[in-house]
Amino acid sequence: MTLAWAGALGAQDAAQDEPLNLPANVSILEHKDPSVRKATAIVNGTVLTDTDVDQRLALVLAANKGEPSAEERKQLRLQVLSNLIDETLEIQEAAANKITIDKSEIQQTFDRVAGQFKQAPGGFIGYLKSKGTSEASMKRQIEGELAWRRLLGREVEPFVNVSDDEVNQVIARLKASKGTAEYHVAEIYLSATPINQAQVLAKANDLVDKIRRGSSFVAYAHEFSEASTKAVGGDLGWVRAEQLPDQIAATMQQMPTNAVSDPIPVNGGFSIIALIDKRAVLTADPRDAQLSLKQMTITLPPGSTRESAEPKLRMFSDALKTLKGCGDAEAVGLKVGAEVVANDQLKVRDLPPQLQQVVLDMQVGEATPPFGSMTEGIRALVLCGRDAPEAVDLPNFEQIQSQMQDERVNLRARRYLRDLRRDAVIEYR
Fold it and tell me: Where is the PpiC domain (predicted)?
């Protein structure tokens, strides 16, 4: 787990500030023209241009499916500008503390990011240009994240302590909870006040709708989440229900894997939860079994329909019923015109969700029912072997201590950035 509910904790912390003493009935003395939106800014003397915002917006859009409407694009642009302001404040604060990031380190991270986009380092620059963004925009984002991380390592981490007693208490709780459910969760946290609650909820619902239609949860967490986990795409890691607020835990326990929740009211705002996976604490997961498989694939002619493919599907299905173990796969494949490939490196959890339980219920030598599509071909998997998953060990003292320290550092980081925002001189243009 990285930072469990830093957003909610940060909101609780903010609530300890001096009350604003707002009147019960507010009269707006001068109305703001909603058609006037400030697109760029000068942050403590650093100019953020239209090009900066456009190129960073293009990065967000490149990671998501679908074309936003004109109004959605305006909202995204404002959010991108807000993120660029935070990024600028982080870089400025790092520089004030004589922290600079070497260009070679930025380049190494840039090359790793290229892999995340499934691009070779040499072709990544051209890919970014094709999406309307640039190498410079990506590298500035990388610089901001590296500089902030290094600043926290110097100015925050040394002053965060986790006692041996605290670690031992966590170890005792882990031992007591062996076999209970544990969840791999990601979050997008949006802060809200009584004044803007409806507006924030509408924004949260819009994000949920886009994610369910195929947009990237990770990309939206990077851009919109106000928890410190935004740097890791909202990933909270593995958590147990009792570690989370009651309203979050209740929703999470009812969700299927690979699902995204509706916005959940929490202290200080709303959280959107993605349930990535489930497992039992300190218990071997059958889905971690290592598989030896052979895949049989029949390719269909372009433009095939289910009706035209039915004879081949029936022939393939009948042939699979005669299969005599994995060693017979090539001979059966030759009879039905199927290509056969072997793979010994997959775990059950690496398979599509629809196939995982099917494979877990199979005996060695059996084949799955045919699956696939008219465009990708008809396939079947033959189970050649299955190695049981290794036993899960209790995290050691140092691992737990490091995790607890990271949580506290991330909470202080949120406070640190809040203070930088308060002291910033920002001129919108």
Answer: 180-277
Mean pLDDT along residues 29-55: 74
What is the rounded distance in angstroms from the CA atom of residue 226 to the CA atom of residue 83? 10
Segment holding 59, helix H or strand E? helix 50-62
Angle between helices 121-130 and 103-116 (to 10 degrees): 70
Q: Using an 8 Å Cβ cutoff, are 338 and 297 in contact?
A: yes
CATH of domain 286-387: 3.10.50.40
pLDDT beyond 50 at 16: no
Cα–Cα distance for residue pair 8/225, rounded to 1 Å: 12
Residue 38: pLDDT over 60: no
Q: Please give the torsion angle defined by the CA atoms of residues 108, 109, 110 and 112, in that order, rounded to the nearest 10 degrees.
A: 90
Q: Which pLDDT band holds residue 39 (cuts at 50, 70, 90)? A: low
What DSSP element (H or E) covers 278? strand 269-280
**321 within 8 A of 369, measured Cβ to Cβ:** no
Spatial separation of the C-alpha atoms in residues 317 and 270, rounded to whole Å: 49
Which strand (E) or helix (H) includes residue 289? none
Q: What fold, for 169-283?
A: Chitinase A; domain 3 (3.10.50)
Reported as a single tens digit per residue, the pLDDT across 127-173 is 999 999 999 999 999 999 999 999 999 999 999 999 999 999 988 88
Whole-angstrom Cα distance, residue 419 to residue 111? 33
C-alpha Rg value of the chain to the nearest Å = 26
Q: Check if the beta carbon of residue 290 is closer than 8 Å to that of residue 386.
A: yes
Residue type, 33: D
Q: Is the dihedral of CA 317, 321, 322, 328 positive or negative?
A: positive
Q: Where are the domains of the chain?
A: 169-283, 286-387
In this chain, the answer to whether the domains covering 169-283 and 286-387 adopt an identical fold is yes
Q: Encode 134-155 in three state secondary structure.
A: CHHHHHHHHHHHHHHHHHHHHH
26, exposed or middle or buried, with CB in 10 Å at 0-12, 13-18, 19+? Answer: exposed
- Compute the distance between CA of residue 165 and CA of residue 171 in angstroms, rounded to an integer: 10
* Distance of alpha carbon 113 from alpha carbon 138, whole angstroms: 9
Cα distances (angstroms) measured from residue 68 to each of 63, 103, 146, 368: 13, 34, 30, 40
